[in-house]
Structures are given as C-alpha cells and as structure tokens.
Amino acid sequence: MTPDPPPPTGEPPPAAAGDQPRYRLRLFVSGVTPRSTLAIANIKAIGDRYLHGRYDLEVIDAFQHPDLLHVQQVIVLPTLIRLLPLPVRRLVGDMSDHTSVLLGLELVADEPDAATTQGRPR
Amino acid sequence: MSSPPEAFAAFPPGLPKCATGIRGLDAITNGGLPRFRPTLVCGGAGTGKTLLAMEFLVRGIREHNENGVFICFEERSTDLAQNCASLGFDLPALIADRKLVIDTVVIDAEQVTETGAYNLDGLFLRLDADIAAVGATRIVLDSIEALFATLSRHQTLRWELRRLFARLKDKGITTIVTGEQGNGTLTRHGLEEYVSDCVLLLDQRVINNIATRRLRIIKYRGSTHGSNEYPFLIGGHGLTVLPITDSDLQYTTSRDIISTGIPRLDAMFSRQGCFRGGTLLVTGTTGTGKTSLAAHFAEAACRRGERCLYFAFEESPDQIERNMQSIGIDLGCWVAKGLLRFAAARPASFGLEVHLSVMLGLTDAFAPQIVILDSVSALESAGTLLDSRFMLMRMVDVLKSRQITLFLTSLTSAALPAEQSEVGISSLVDTWLVLRNLEQAGERTRALYIVKSRGLRHSNQARELLLTDHGADLVEVVVGPDGKILTGSARTAQELLDHAAAARLQQDAAGRQAALLRKQKIMEARIAEMQAEFAAEAEATGMALAQLASATSDLLTGRGLLARQREEPGGAPVPDAARTTE
User: Which of A96, A103, A121 has the CB atom closest to B113's CB atom?
Assistant: First the structure.
C-alpha cells in the first residue's frame, strides 16, 4: 500500500494508446480496512472492464502519508482522484456505486450499458 | 488576561475553564470556555465568528502559552491573515514561530462524485498532523458546516462529527466550532446537537440605521454565566465584549480637589471645588451654557498643566473654539500646547460600541487627567437609550478606575423637570449641576443649581449664570417680594427698588432726627425762657422781701423806743396789748 510509481515497463505511455487516453488514477484509502479493500477491488474491476487496462492506479495509505492529504486536499476516505485525462476529477466513497463511478470518471459514453450491467451498489 | 470579577468568585470552580483572553468574554462566561470541550459560535454572516475564534487562538498563544490550529473551510489563509492584521494579530509571525497552524481545507476544488460509503479519516489525519506540528491545545474549525454543502451523506457527516468531537475531547483540546445561523435554527445543519456544552450566539442588529453587534451565551452546561445580550465591538485590538457587571466597584478614589474654572462655582462647594477622578454632570435645556461650563473646566485643567480630552458630538472643534472665544476662553492655545485635544465625531456615524472603543482608545493614547463628553444625549442617537446608558456606565467605570475626571454634559428636554429626565445616568455621577432657563418679564436668563455633590457640602441656593466677555460668572440671585427668584433685568430692577427703599428709610430717619433736634431746641429755648421768668420773679420777690424786712425792723425799732420811754418814770413793763392801744 505504498504510493506506486507510475507503472514501470511493458505498458505503452499514456499518449501512445491510440485514440483512447490513458487514465491516471490515485486512490487514497485509510489503512487495511474492509472499506479500503472494497474500494480497491471496485476500482480495479471497473478499470479492467471499461478501460481494458488503459489505466495506472496508485493506491496511497493516508495513514502512511498524511502529508499527501494536505497536498491533495483529501479529507474524505476513500478518495479517488483522476489526474489524467484532464480535468481532474474527484470521487469519494468505496466505489460500490458503479454508475456514479462511471459518471465521475466520464466513462459512460464509452459503454452505454455499463450502468445497467454492473451498476448496483454493494 | 482578565480574571473573573469578584462577584463571580463566590461560585465554586466546577468545570475546568479555558480563558479566551477576549476582553469581557471571560467575565460573562465566568472564566472562559469549557476546557477540553467544543464550543459552538454561531451567528449570521459578518457577525464576527471567525475573528472571535481567531482571537481565541492568538490570545491563547500570547497569554496562556497554548498553541493553536485554525482549520478554515471557507476562507483562504492569506485572506484570513490580512483580515486579522487589522486587529493587530500578526499571524504569519505566529506561524513562523511554530505556534499556530492555519490549514485551509478545500473541499470543492473539483467536482466531487460520491460513489459509496466513506468517512472523514482524511480530515482527522490532517488535524492530527496539524496538532502534532505545534503541540496545539486549542483548535478552531471554521466553519465545518461547509462539509454539508459538498457531501450529501449528512447522516455520515453527523456521525463523523460526533466522532471528531469525542477524539478532540480525548486529546485534551479545547475547540471552537463556528456555524452559520440557519433559518429559525442556530446553525444550518444542526451543529448545536453535537456541540452542546457551550453555545455562543453572535448577532448584528440594525437599530436606527446603526449596526450594533451583540453576543449571547445560549447555553453553557455545568457553569453559571451571564444571560444577557452583551454588545461587543471589533476594534484595533480585537474583540471587546461589554459586560455591565465587569466593574467590581473596587477602585480607589482621590481626595484631591480640583477647580471647575469658575471661582464662584468652586465657592458653592464646601471644599472650593470638586473631587478629582469624579464624574460631573451638567444638564440643562438647550442654550443654557453647558458647553461654556465644559470649556471652563477644560481651560482650568490646562492651566494646571493637565491634559484634557474633549469629545465633541455636536459641534466641530473649530466651532467650539470660536464660540468660546466670545466668552473670553482661548481653547486654541491649549490645543497648540498639546494639553487639550478635541475628538469630534457625529454620533450617528457609527455604533455605540465603536464610539466607546474609539473613546477608550484615545484615552489610552492621550492619557488625559480630564475627559469631557459633550454631550451624552447626542450619543443616545447612536443607539437605544438603554444601550447608551450601559456604554456610559462602562466609560465611567473605566475612567474612575484610572482616576480620570469625567465631565459630562447632557441636553434635557424642556418639557420634563431636569431631575426626572436624567434619572438614568444621575446615579452614575458624583456631582450634578443643573442649568435652567428662567423666563420672566419677557427675558430668558440662566440659573444654576447643584443637585448633588457626593462627599462635599454644597450651597443649596440657585445662582444666576452670566456669560460675560471674561467668561462665565455666577451672581447671587435676588428673591422678590413674592418669594420668586429674580434674575436678569428683573434682578437689577429689584435691586434698584431695594436701593430706593433703603434710601427712603435713610431719609426718613434723617428727617426724624432733625425733628427731634428741633424739638430739643424748642425745649431748651422754653427752659431758658422759664428760667429767665423765674429769675425775674425771684428778683422781684427778693426785693419785696427785703422791703418787708426793713419795714418790720423799723417797726420794732420804733416800739422799743416807746417802751424805753415809758419805763423811765415808773419802772413797771407795760403789756403789749396795753402798749398797742396806747
């Protein structure tokens, strides 16, 4: 649960992924709690399904890096920040409401049926 | 800074208190805010919540060595520093000294989408870091209600706030939470439900177009507190709450006597003047010479080398100077010498609390021995009558505690007797002079009475106040034949009458004396005449007697001759009867 540096090798740089932009996501969680785990699982599932791996997820444990909370103005946990593509978007909660997550990440246009297929809260 | 006044000391110290250091607030909260507990400061926009909270931290650092954390949810920290600089709080310096942390929480920097359950651990962690950074024991959350505007899960937020306050309590931190006043509720989102130990309500009300700030303690669990609405002001040194009970009537008083500047007025007091550090009140209807008396008082102080601060609420200083020159008082030269200072302001230009703060500030700066307020009735237009009384009471208390003599003038309504219309402040003053217009015989004149003078015997007689080229003077009034006091030309006329009467009496006496003398002379003449008559008679009688005597002796002599002639032949005496028949 340390801030992962941008994915090392093997993956193409964000700009190189054809017409589709590469997503850069940063998730703040509060330690190893069920809610943290749930949030990570949810965002990974959405990323795999709707972004097909076109994303880099950085998970930060707020307890380990409280200074980053100031920098990123995070007060709610979990908080997911979409750093790229711009503009920056901010999502809070455990990501179990997939419809909202897709809306927040502006992914609905890609998969119109996304909300109906998987968009049920926990 | 300030300890609770004596009056409150009787209550047992139950709850541990955290002194705010805000002037007046610690007095009405009986020592400060509840320590280790949250206090809610609520009120409408612009009522001074943020400044109160910030002063709580700054005073804590300066006066109690308690460091603080200020979490702002609304204002940028740079704006906050600027706003507080006007109160004399140098926030950047405190931050540089690692005594204060200002942490701005931006919660709506980007659009926020809620995707499920969450908590405020991020905020808690930030708070922990801030508190640890300076070892803070005081914290301000201004205003945490902003969270409700951004986050929709209010139930979660309420729960999290409960948890937050419990955590702060456990950490031994005294907290101020601010909240905007809602429609019919103390705060928009019911913060008062979680912060129930102490609730302060700030309020700004406009009465007669003048805004007055007020503070009220809505509740204070486990502590006695003042229950009134207290006016407060935001001045150059922070907030000042004006509790009426702040004075404990413990000041020492002076026994020195100072002159009023009018010798004959001084003479009306048993000790030729009034007490230094006292409060003098001059009341009177318009045009009775109140300002003239004030100018005399000021001039007398300056002549003694004392400093005098003159608050003019009705006239400009220049106008007062000009007008007083007409009665021979040159105030301008004392201003030039730096002994006299005018401070003029329209009463309605700002609220009473600002007036008070300005007056106290100037008093601090100028350090006068005499303060003149001309006039207090003008101040009443800057607030309600009651408020102005409280303000005046506060002013009197402050000046008395510093032994500064206060000279008040007050305009009374002509309709009411002077003694009634000033009931409110007369109990505050030590010496009360009443000026009254007397109207008689088509003429207005001024009469002066001393209504009271604490600690000094005084003349009970009215005097007529004359405003001459050489200043004000008092003359004895004349009582007319019907018992009315006469002033002005009536007095002069009566004096003439009296003169004439005296002259008549004098003439009368002289006449009688002359008559007596004449009588005496007549008597003496008669005596002389009678004596002459007597003498003449006596002479005549004497002569007659002498003739008689000589005749008798002749007769006897004749008889003797006869007898001797008869005795020569016979020798026997002849009886007288026989002799006469012979």
Answer: A103
Sequence letter at residue B145: E
| Cα–Cα distance, B358 to B385 (Å, whole number) | 19
Spatial distance between the Cα atoms of B25 and B33, rounded to a whole number of angstroms? 9
- Cβ contacts (< 8 Å) between B122 and chain A: which residues? 28, 30, 62, 69, 74-77, 79
Enumerate the domain spans of chain B: 6-246, 257-476, 482-564
Which residues, including other chains, have CB under 8 Å from residue B2's CB and lie 6 or more apart? B19, B21, B23, B24, B26, B27
**What is the three-class DSSP state of B173?**
coil
- Tell me which residue has tokens 């005073």: B59
pLDDT at B422: 60
Within 10 angstroms of residue B577's Cβ, the number of other Cβ atoms is 8
Mean pLDDT of chain A: 74
Which regions in chain B score pLDDT beneath 50?
1-12, 244-246, 581-582
Chain A residue closest to B128 (CA)?
A66
Global ipTM: 0.75
A·B CB contacts under 8 A: 106
CATH class of the domain defined by B6-246: alpha beta
Q: Is A13 near chain B, with CB under 8 Å?
A: no
Please tell me the predicted confidence (pLDDT) of residue A10.
44
B178 dihedral zone (left: phi>0; alpha: psi -120 to 50; beta): beta
- How far apart, in whole angstroms, are the C-alpha atoms of residue B78 and residue B95? 12
Look at residue B306 in the predicted model and tell me its pLDDT: 92
CATH architecture designation of domain B257-476: 3-Layer(aba) Sandwich (3.40)
**SS3 labels along B335-379:** HHHCCEEEEECCHHHCCHHHHHHHHHHHHHHHCCCEEEEECHHHH
Chain A residue with the nearest C-alpha to that of B114: A92
Per-residue pLDDT tens digits for A72-114: 888 888 888 888 888 888 888 888 888 888 888 887 654 444 4
